């Protein structure tokens, strides 16, 4: 038996997780056959969760609470806006739930169309989980070294990753 590897930078990790909000409503969940694979230490997870996983080993379970600032960010009211319909390309359908990327002074932001009122299109550039305190229950399934190729690409290959 070798000592169990600890979660650290440049390890490939798989975890089971369940994500709830403050009200205890389940927002997201992995399934037993499909754990979340990620490369640790390169910002693939929200910062608060990545920090909390550091040093854990296979089989470890943990409950992690992540504030919005360590999660998907605070709600930014200035990213909720009304845009004139004429600003959208002619002929493109505009429907609630559709997303588009627009350049802002803080770089490209993905906006979601929330609704249409007359000639105005209401859009929101906040992440759907912005302003939400995240409650994760996690269990570490596996920890292994990343391959050279994975480190070069910055993502996981093989099961749970890119092929
Ligand atoms: Zn790749």
Give the number of helices. Answer: 2
Radius of gyration: 19 Å
- Kindly report the average pLDDT value: 93
The description of the largest β-sheet is: 5 strands, antiparallel
Task: Assign the CATH class of the largest domain.
Answer: Alpha Beta
Number of domains: 2
Helix content: under 10%
SS strand fraction: 35-45%
Per the CATH scheme, the topology name of the largest domain is Chitinase A, domain 3
Model description:
This protein is mainly beta and 163 residues long. It folds into two domains: 11-72 and 130-153, Chitinase A, domain 3 (Roll); 77-124, Beta Barrel (Thrombin, subunit H), CATH 2.40.10. 8% of the residues lie in helices and 39% in strands. The chain contains two helices and nine strands, in the order βββαββββββα. The strands form two sheets. Strands 1, 2, 3, 4 and 9 form a five-stranded antiparallel sheet that branches. Strand 6 and strand 7 form a beta hairpin. It is elongated, with a radius of gyration of 19 Å. The structure holds zinc ion. Residues 153, 155, 157, 162 line the site of zinc ion.
């Amino acid at each position: 038996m070798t000592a169990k590897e600890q979660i650290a930078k440049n390890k490939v990790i798989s975890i089971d997780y369940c994500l709830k909000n403050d009200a205890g409503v389940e927002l997201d969940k992995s399934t037993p056959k499909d754990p979340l694979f990620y490369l640790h230490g390169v910002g693939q997870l929200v910062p608060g969760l990545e920090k909390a996983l550091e040093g854990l080993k296979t089989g470890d379970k943990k409950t992690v609470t992540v504030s919005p600032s360590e999660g998907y960010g605070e709600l930014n009211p200035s990213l909720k806006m009304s845009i004139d319909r004429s600003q959208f390309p002619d002929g493109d359908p505009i429907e609630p739930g559709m997303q588009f990327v627009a350049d802002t002074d803080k770089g490209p932001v993905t906006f979601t169309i929330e609704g249409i009122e007359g000639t105005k299109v209401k859009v929101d550039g906040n992440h759907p989980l912005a302003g939400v305190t995240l409650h994760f229950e996690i269990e570490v399934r596996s920890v292994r070294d990343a391959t050279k190729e994975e480190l070069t690409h910055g993502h996981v290959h093989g099961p749970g990753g890119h092929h």
